[in-house]
Amino acid sequence: MKLISTNPSLAYETIGSVEITAIDEIENIVIQSHNSQIKWHNRGVTGRIKLLRQLSAKFSENVNRLAELQSIEMGMPINQSIADINFGIEYFNSYLDKGTEYLKPTITFENDTESDTVYFEPYGVVACIVPWNYPFSNFVWQCGQNLVAGNSVIFKHSEESPLCGKLIDEIVNSILPDGVFIEIYGDGSIGEKLVDSDVNLICFTGSTTTGIKINELAASRLIPTSLELGGSAPGIIFEGTDISKVINTIYNYRFSNCGQACDALKRLIVHESIFDQVVLTLSKIISEKRIGNAINPQTDIGPLVSKRQLDLLIEQVSDATSKGAKIIVGGKQPKNLNGAYYEPTIITNVTNDMQIWNQEVFGPVLTIVSFKTEQQAIALANDTNYGLGAYIFTDDNVKFNRVANQLQSGMISQNNLSYVNVCNPFTGYNMSGGGREHAQFGFGAVTRLRLIVNEK
Fold first, then answer.
1. Which terminus of the chain is more solvent-facing, meaning fewer CB atoms within 10 Å of its CB: N or C?
2. Which CATH number fits domain 2-229+433-455: 3.40.50.1820, 3.40.390.10, 3.40.605.10, 3.50.50.60?
3. pLDDT tier, 354 (very low <50, low <70, confident <90, very high otherwise)
């Protein structure tokens, strides 16, 4: 059977297909991966990094090819797509640059007669499953540190971006030994079979609903998981903030990649004294943006990834308006475009019984609510089951730190600063999963500890 890929920019026209992996093949794939992992581990960190640097160079040679396919298949505007590929390569290189340091054995105790050493050992075979919203960088974030650490990877990309997955597969396997990286193709049933097979670690990025199911499957066998799940990030703008200095950052945090990011700013909480100013300024910025085909360099906002995603967004907005929410700008599909397009949208008069407040919204829709007091702002920000990212806009550093320490979020930034950095963990609280990626934190998530105490 074939998995068909379509172009959301051009009325869902077919652009290609890949062969779906047969469920009864999964067991043999896992066995092959186990056999290859032993040899991969035995290369040592230095040997693995040497080969992975060749892979990084290969990615760099294919930036435009990867970016163009990413834009055509999932709708990311081409300029953003090129930036995303380079962003992913930067992270991949950071794992290579720091892998030897972070994976070196640590002596925890030593005297004249004894030496205690902790080793960071690979788990073995890892199931890595990623969504469609950042096809290349999602692959890097889930697979890069696993490969450096000595794990072999069985990789499943989303059924929404199989061609991106196939191209990544071809590039990786032009460099790495057979069986170290194996990609499988299909829908959730293929992923479910994989996580229920003889793997040693499960790394998953995606919805909280699927993450819970994976955790339940893994728990019965005590298989460790690293889950990077959904988010409904708040952004708080306090009185006295210079709106002109942060408004473009706020726009980008919500509307980049058509709002399809797990830690995108999804609920903007604005002090009542500047509420009208913020709404008006954001509306003006939005009105100047160009919606169109993702492959066009002039496009600011492309389509959503699929009709399925578009239909969900329409349902969420319809639920809000039926309960009294007010659309300030946008709120509909553009008439002159045929595809998964939705106008960038601002909605006010939002209450917490609306889907756009209590669900994760993956699309170019921003809810804006007002607050009077600091404690009210904190309560609104924490009014979610998620806890991935959060953004605070204030020039008062004392206030920033006071509020940041009360937010239920794994990552918090101030004004135009970004918490996304190769040296920082990417991690969440609560129903956002608590997975950890990057730097020493990510290497800790994909290795297990072995303590050896020996006589001198």
1. C
2. 3.40.605.10
3. very high
